[in-house]
Amino acid sequence: MDDWVDTGADDELFLEPESGYGGRHTSSKELAIALKRRTKAAAIDLVNFMQAAQKNPALNVVRYQIIKSATSVAANYRAACRARSKREWYAKLCIVVEECDETLFWLEILAESEIPVDMNSVRILGKEYQSLLQLFAKSRANARVKKT
Fold first, then answer.
1. DSSP character for 26?
2. Angle between the 119-147 and 57-81 helix axes, to the nearest 10 degrees?
3. What is the pLDDT at residue 146?
4. DSSP one-letter code for 15
5. Pick the residue with more confidence: 15 or 142?
6. What totals of helices (H) and strands (E) does the chain contain, helices first?
7. How far apart are CA 53 and CA 121, in angstroms?
8. CA torsion sign, 135 to 137 to 143 to 145?
9. Are 23 and 39 in contact (CB under 8 A)?
10. Radius of gyration of the chain, Cα coordinates, nearest whole angstrom
11. What is the pLDDT of residues 42-59, one digit of tens each?
């Protein structure tokens, strides 16, 4: 999981992801614990950011969608860690990747629209979700290679 996969993001807004869990972990269990904490913290940061943002009709639509996708990343990663089989783990990981990408989509909507939000916070959140997407997409790709 040390290598990053290019997700094809065209926007420089979310480049150079910052790692929130730092360093190498000695076991997959430690990594899973760190990633559970990291995905939950990222979801909470996003929820708090959206809660603090002004209320307006356009933002209300984005707020609803982005909170659903961000919390789904954390919830589905947690579910993947409790998977009963490798197939179930892989299926949950696929959902995690999909929801990370959707969260990035909504952050891009915020960044590129005229919805009034703190752009620095959007960039910080975007970097974290870009980093998570790269990590989970690489894990999924590695799992797919091992399956065949």
1. S
2. 30
3. 64
4. -
5. 142
6. 4, 0
7. 11
8. negative
9. no
10. 15
11. 999 999 999 999 999 999
